[in-house]
Amino acid sequence: MTRVGIVEDDRSMRDNLAEFIAGTPGFACVTACPNAEEALRSFPHSTPDVALVDINLPGKSGLELVRELRKLCPQTQIIMLTVEEDTKKVFESLKAGATGYLVKHVPPNEILEAIQEVHGGGAPMSSHIARMVVTALREPAPPQAAQTQLSARELEILRLLACGDRSKEIADKLGIGVGTVNTHVRHVYEKLHVRSRAEAVARFFKAK
Amino acid sequence: MKIVERLCGRRTAGTDDTRARSSSGSGLRLAFILAVIPFFGRSDPLAGQADSDLPVQYRIDRWTTEQGLPQNTVRAVHQTRDGYLWIGTSYGLARYDGIRLKDYTAELMLAGVANLQISQVAEDSDGRLWIRTPDELCSYYQHRFQPFSLKSGLLKGTLQTMAPRRLGGLWLAMWDGLKHFQDGALVSTIRHRENFAADAIEVLREDSSQRLWVRPNRVNREAGWLCYDPAADRVQTVEEAAGFNPGVIQDIYHDRSGRIWFLTPEEFICQDGKTRLRYPAPFRPNSIQEELDGTFWFTSGVELVRFHKGEFTALGRREGIASSDLRTVLLDREANIWVGTGDGLQRLQRRRFTTLLSENERGQKNEVYAVCSGGDGRVWLGTSSALTLLSGNQMTAYTNHVTKLTGRIENSASQVLEDSSGRIWCGLHNEGLSKLTDGRYQRVPIPGIPASTEWSVRAVLEDHTGQIWVGTDRLGLLRLNGGEIRRYTIENGLPANTVTSVCEAPDGSLWLGTGGGGIAMLKDGHFRTFTMHNGLLSNYAWVLRIEASGTVWIGTPLGLNRLRAGVMRSVTAREGLFDNLAYSLLDDGRGNYWAHCNRGIWRVRQADLHAVADGCGIPVECVSYGEADGMRSTEGNGESQPNAARTPDGRLWFPTTHGVVVVDPKTLLENETAPPVVIEQVIADGELIHGDGAKPAKSALGMDRRLPPGRARVLEIHYTANSFVAPEKVRFRYRLSGVDANWRDGAGNRVVYYTNLRPGNYRFQVKACNNHGYWNERGATFAFSLAPHFWQTSIFYGLCGTAAVLLAGGVQGYRLRVQRRILRLEHQRAMAQERARLARELHDDLGTALTGLALEMDVMQRAAGPAPGLSARLRSSAGRARELARHMREVVWAVSPACDNIPSLAKFLEQHAVLFVQAAGLKCRLELPENLPERPLSSSVRHELALSVREALNNVVRHARASEVILSLQLDAHALTIRIGDNGIGFDPARLNGAGHGLANLRSRLEPFGGAMTLQSETGRGTTLTLRIPIPARGEGAGS
């Protein structure tokens, strides 16, 4: 049973999404909130496994919500929901701790797949996000985040992702399992996240 | 500087003692100057003979080293034709213009004159000044001294004397002959001629027919005077030349009328043709000067002697001549007599006014407060010792009785009136009104006023009905009609109880000036007042003068007012009045008003006064008189009215703090000599370009000076006018042609500044008038030109003008371009904003709603469960809704300005390709740069590219039978290249006929943007479509 939480301000979208998920065997919609404030109140009790968070929320933004949820409910995997691929915002939320993103207009089955994948330890990453990750993590890291340099394998996987290959194809090409690919991508997400925090700390010290 | 002396002469021949005495019964002695005698009364036998002989008073001034003389022994004085007075002393030379004594001693020394003892100064017919010293003969011409040594060179020898030669040059009497010296060369030298010892001449005179009269030196004294005619080269004795033997001659003088005077130790012999006049003269005359009227002045060595109509009058120390060592006499053009003495330079100035003085025993100066003209030529004076009567040549003082009130023995009389019935009314200070009867003052009691009350009379008037009006200082106005006295005060409507002036108008109305209440008109028992509210300059009105037309002139301390037909106008010093104050306003019957104030007496034309009051704007011209004209004190008295008087003989009498001044406008001698004007110095930007010490300028046609470019930022012009009567009253007018349109009033200033003159030709003109307003209209002129800088030439201006026009055109064009561009950019921005708004609304509202709708259909489809048909339809509806949303996103992408860049295109192509190709079951490979620069790409270009790529992908999916599609994107400096490759069956491009329609379509999409499309394919080897579109390099703008 995958426990899903939804944070979405559009009511029709939220209700339909909640109903669809709830109506799907193996899934449960444990909470559906219209904004970040309510989500922060509700999530500690409902403890969803996977949260679908709209990137554009009224009041506190989706990005801030991700940052706080990472501290409040570290076990909750977060998938960003976005109307279109606003790469910068998506990338920022990934750095803040989200594990993937979905454009809202994809068929609901794909949404379910994505939830399943994330909950199962997978790490979905689109080709252009992969390109951005490569660029971001190649830049010299702040000293506190020296361990965030990409490994050769991770870089290779990202390159393949950037060229449009899927996890399965990458696993085939590299002769490794899909799970291993996912693990690598997860590590990439982690490094991204760590570096993001390190940069924040570095900025904080610099400002002092 | 000025030592003013009372002076009269001692006659050595002629009438008796110059003083006339008269006494009153009071025991007060009044001394009275002889000068008054001819002025008294028409009955006086001397009246009208003002020119008979010395009653002429002179004023004496003196200049010494303290006033700037180089040395006090003045040996030579000469007035040059430009009016300057040159003063040679035993050590040095000076020049005087009436204001400034300029010491030339240093200049002489610098020029090389070793001995500065000057014995003679003379001007030759060329205007060259010659200065003789024991060792040099020095000329001064055009601001430069040039000495000729007598120790060596051309003029080596002893110079006895010199005389200007009428036909040019100098006659020099030297030990080795009589020499004609001209233009720095000796023209001729005359040695012995018969008995004429040309090398032994002591005195040299040239007459109007160019004959030389010479006196041999002491060694050859027996030879007597000789007459040498250079034209005929003939020598005659005096007896031969004059036709008689005058005996021993000391000097010979040729007067203005061509007569010859032979001056012998015993007599002066005047030869006029055949007639000879002899005047016994116990003098040894020296330095003879002649006045226009034939009066001679000379010095006997110890006295100054005036010889007039056969009579000699000697003036010495007693008369105020400061020295008994008199060296030289000069009569200047204004009839001032200058005497060079061993004790400075002295000047005698003829007094044009007569001042009558009376002195009391204690020698106190005698103030005069009021003058009244009585019958039979009597004149009453109110003085500081009560009343004085002038009658005929008698002067009688009526001192006051010992008053009970003040205990004073004498009292000043501020007012006096002799009425038509012969009564004498007198205002004694603080003792009210008195009547003088039989030499005794009788106080007039005022009803209602205690006798002990102190008050003074301020004004008296007898009206046409014989009533006496008395203005008082505190009791208002009194009317005396027989024995009846009526008093008007503030209660009766009088504006103030101090009535300073009373005057009767032709219509019988009475006008009053008051202290503090303005003026008032009393008519039919009613007062009408005029104050500062009506335009009066001051509420203190002192003088009233009513003209026959009824126009009233009001004298206030702040200027004159004119009241005519109810309209008040004013004339003040700003409009040219000599002084705002007028104690009196006398009509001289010749169209002038005369007034006196504390600075002297002044006169103005009535017509001018009316014109300026009418607002003509031209200042009035006032002629002023002061000490130079004979006043002892310029300070007038006039606190009561009337104070000045015009006697029936036309003379005007003014009371002053030092006697009464009498002027006869008919015979007043005015200084009619217009002063010569000289431009002394011109200084351009601190450099002297004209005047003493200036470098000689190259002679330029019609120009005194040419100035190089930029040399007249500050032009300073010093000028002067040589007038010695009253130099401080000399006034100037000047103009600089090209700058001043009209003459400018320079007042008494002798310097003017001009700044920042433009290049061009200029003429500076200055003219001056003397103290009595006689203008030298010719004046002086200084012409100069200022050369232009190259940037001030007309060619340069032309070029500048052309350049300016071109520049203006260019600027305007540029402005228009910029404006158009700004308009275009604004338009684009407005478009972009519109696009952004549209995109946001479509995206946020419509997009989300469609997605929500699709999701709802998905939910419904699942809820519909196994029901056939409905589920499928709902699924397809959801699909269509999603398709709609996708289309809409593409539209949003196409229009959104936020997407107008290359990364946005790349992302869009990537997502579209991945989605589309994978949906078709093919694998999509991407070859995209990791980091694309954010270079702008217009919406139309990226839209066309997106459509092209979609069509290409569509072709691949439909025709290529490929398993894999490669989308690659490359950006170099100039272009964006997109490739869509497949691993399909390929084809032969040569055989592409009908099927080429889609490709042509692709090409036509790119062509408007300079893009190109190439197709590379081979049967069995797949196909690659290349799209290439030029991208402007960074910084070249957004294009489009």
Oligomeric state as shown? heterodimer
The parts of chain B where pLDDT drops under 50 for at least 5 residues are 1-55, 1035-1040
Dominant shape of chain B: elongated
* Silhouette of chain A: globular
Distance between the first and last residues' Cα of chain A: 48 Å
**Count of helix runs of chain B:** 8
Most residues in contact, chain pair and counts = A-B, 26 and 36 residues
Strand arrangement in the largest pleated sheet of chain A: 2-1-3-4-5
Q: Report the radius of gyration of chain B as a whole number of Å.
A: 55 Å
Helix vs. strand class of chain A: alpha/beta
Instruction: Bin the helical content of chain A.
Output: 55-70%
Binned, the helix content of chain B reads: 10-25%
Number of strands of chain A: 5
Main beta sheet of chain B, described?
5 strands, antiparallel
How would you describe this structure in keywords?
heterodimer; A: 208 residues; alpha/beta; B: 1040 residues; alpha+beta; five-stranded antiparallel beta sheet; five-stranded mixed beta sheet; 73 strands; elongated
Description:
With 208 residues, chain A is α/β, with parallel strands linked by helices. In chain A, 56% of the residues lie in helices and 13% in strands. Chain A has nine helices and five strands; from the N terminus they run E-H-E-H-E-H-E-H-E-H-H-H-H-H. In chain A, strands 2-1-3-4-5 form a five-stranded parallel β-sheet, with helices on both faces. In chain A, helix 1 links the parallel strand 1 and strand 2. In chain A, helix 7 packs across helix 9 (178-207). Chain A is globular, with a radius of gyration of 17 Å. Chain B is of the alpha+beta class and 1040 residues long. Chain B contains eight helices and 73 strands. Chain B has a five-stranded antiparallel β-sheet with strand order 1-28-27-26-25, with no helix packed on it. In chain B, strands 62-68-67-64-65 form a five-stranded mixed β-sheet, with no helix packed on it. In chain B, helix 6 runs parallel beside helix 7 (939-960). In chain B, 40% of the residues are buried. Mean pLDDT of chain B is 83; it is low at 1-55 and 1035-1040. At the A-B interface, helix 1 and helix 6 of A face helix 4, helix 5, helix 6 and strand 69 of B.
